[in-house]
Write a sequence for this structure.
């Protein structure tokens, strides 16, 4: 197992100082019975993760800097193993002091979200002055000697902003500019008129290709990345029986995917190490999991509740909850399969 676990994504909170219109996990508005892991529980979890020395760990949210002291402690733990670890933030709370502390704690990269120029950014994220704060956050990160990435969600209203943002990132010394299709979940379902259609994606991809050539010619360090957020779901749906990555929720759930309402374990019941030593990465896959995952064909079909109203919606507190370490794991999975798909 210590050679098998490659990537870990850890949500440390769903609290947030923003209410972004496109947030797939509706951060800042969770009203679930679950309690987020305490600082002490998070520390135990991260120590367990560190034992498996994954290639990379991403600290996500919610707004991660709302728990900045925990973020520093996580970094100091991961510093002891040979992995790279980064943090995702909206940047509003970033200061030079925080950036220096992140550097001191061993983080290699900070990703800041900049989804368009000022008008479009503030429409999407709803915070006046947020655009300037995000740009300043990138400057803080660079002044601290950290690598910076900028993420941008494509919308119909910001398609024309992409080239200008890429140029800005190059001027700021950013190492990576990242785009991926909008996750049509959570609050994002309320802005369906803003979803990019095919012509918009063609324009964005053409812009990225154009700037790749420009940046290559000027020997810029900036890399332009286009991600496929549902690749792991396609792989699972096709019957892959092994995992190389894990997503852990702020509630301590081990999720098959951050986009699917199905957990296969809980850190509040058993330790991270107990799950992995029981070969979770190899044997988690059941007919129920493959069936639910197979419902997702693209970003437009991510909401399995919309496809089948009998299925729960993600982050509503109604997840299918299985426990891989329960002796009845396969049996309970089969029962749920029979109930919902037969």
């Amino acid at each position: 197992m210590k050679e098998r676990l490659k990537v870990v994504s850890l949500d440390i909170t769903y609290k947030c100082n923003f209410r972004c219109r496109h947030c797939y996990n509706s951060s800042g508005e969770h009203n679930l019975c679950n309690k987020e892991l305490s600082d002490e529980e998070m520390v135990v979890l991260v120590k367990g993760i560190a034992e498996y020395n994954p290639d990379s760990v991403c600290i996500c949210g919610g707004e991660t800097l709302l728990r900045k002291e925990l973020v520093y402690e996580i970094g100091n733990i991961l510093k002891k193993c040979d992995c790279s670890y980064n943090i995702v933030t909206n940047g509003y709370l970033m200061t030079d002091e925080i950036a220096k502390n992140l550097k001191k704690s061993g983080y290699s990269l900070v990703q800041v979200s900049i989804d368009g120029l000022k008008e479009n950014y503030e429409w999407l994220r709803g915070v006046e002055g947020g655009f300037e704060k995000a740009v300043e956050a990138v400057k803080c990160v660079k002044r601290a000697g950290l690598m910076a990435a900028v993420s941008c969600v494509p919308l119909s209203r910001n398609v024309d902003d992409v080239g200008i943002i890429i140029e800005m990132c190059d001027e700021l010394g950013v190492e990576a500019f990242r785009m991926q299709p909008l996750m049509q979940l959570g609050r994002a379902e309320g802005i369906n008129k803003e979803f990019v259609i095919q012509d918009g994606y063609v324009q964005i991809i053409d812009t990225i290709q154009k700037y790749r050539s420009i940046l290559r010619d000027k020997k810029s360090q900036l890399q332009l990345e286009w991600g496929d957020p549902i690749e792991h779901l396609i792989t699972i749906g096709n019957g892959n029986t092994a995992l190389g990555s894990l997503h852990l929720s702020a509630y301590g759930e081990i999720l098959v995917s951050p986009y699917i309402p199905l957990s296969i374990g809980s850190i509040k019941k058993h330790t991270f190490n107990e799950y992995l030593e029981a070969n979770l990465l190899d044997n988690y896959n059941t007919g129920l999991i493959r069936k639910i995952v197979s419902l997702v064909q693209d970003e437009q079909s991510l909401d399995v509740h919309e496809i089948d109203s009998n299925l729960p919606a993600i982050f509503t507190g109604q997840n299918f909850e299985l426990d891989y370490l329960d002796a009845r794991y396969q049996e309970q999975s089969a029962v749920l399969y029979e109930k919902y798909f037969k």
In short: The chain has two domains: 7-227, 232-341. The first helix runs from residue 39 to 51. The chain has a mean pLDDT of 94.
